[in-house]
Design a protein that fits this description.
nine-stranded mixed β-sheet; protein-L-isoaspartate (D-aspartate) O-methyltransferase activity; 9 helices; alpha/beta; single chain; globular; PCMT; 15 strands; two-stranded antiparallel sheet; Rossmann fold
Amino acid sequence: MTRKALSRVASISLATTTVLLWLVYDTHAANPDSNNSSNRLNHSKSSRAAFVPVNPKEGPKVNTDSSKLFYADSPDEPERTNKDDNDNNNNMRAWNCHGRNQRDLVDRMMQAKIVRTDSVQEVLNRVDRQHYAPNNAQQQSSPYMDSPQPIGLGQTISAPHMHAHVLEEIYPYLKASKTDSVKILDVGCGSGYLTAALGRWVAPQEQQGSILDSTKTGHVYGIDIYPHLVDMTTRNMQKADQDLLDQDIVSVQVSDGWKGLPEASPFDAIHVGAAAAEFPRALLQQLKVGGVLIIPVGPEGGVQNLYRVERLGDGFTQDDFRITELLGVRYVPLVQQPPPRAD
């Protein structure tokens, strides 16, 4: 067997074994120091929680695509191209979409077929990264570089192509929502870019970029565990997207991303902007039937993948969710509490 073939087999095997999850029995439920493992679905063989394997014929299944790309969203991760096939020219352009300004950046992502939907194009043009990303000439950084950039506290603003991928994934579920009030949770709002973009989508119909019809309203809840980043999101939105705050289309607050925001649930869409070591059980419980969760999952510094999780039923069994593996990625970790300050 060739090295390339072995790589494909290993990739598919990993994706299959990583989701042996669903019925989780926490062996540390009585231990207050167990890191809330009962609140998460098992994703890793090294987890201390026991789990019941999923019958492949019953689901949930991880639908894999062995030609998927590797995208970095961690500032120290080198740029990669295709994991398995370096001939996928269109998709490999993802790291070459640097623009001179916001419109040029979006145009380049359209040429690379990363942006495919008119509504995604419109909202990316509407929300300018210059208000949300650092601009440091000494470090040769620009808001329009197609790469993740540090925003402090070990966190990053995602690369533009990752924002585009997320929006393309979420869009059809928002359009298909049958509820009168569309609700979105943005976990790890960071500097606020995607929170603002999602807010533009659920603004009143008469506003530019809205995808809602006249009978619907919408709200985006941005949360971050770091108060400094919640403040940053607010300050950044005040530069050009203040109306989203004034009209109560977007709200931001400090909250643990592993726990979500149960008081505002259920959500039509949940986006997680940092890698969880396991699928957070609370977020799956807060997802509306017919809704979608977009989340990177995998250990810090290890193999991570971006997943689309669709909720199919109102129970919490293996038949109520469908999981699809989208991309190989590298994200900063989804933390449960801020690290202690140095003395």
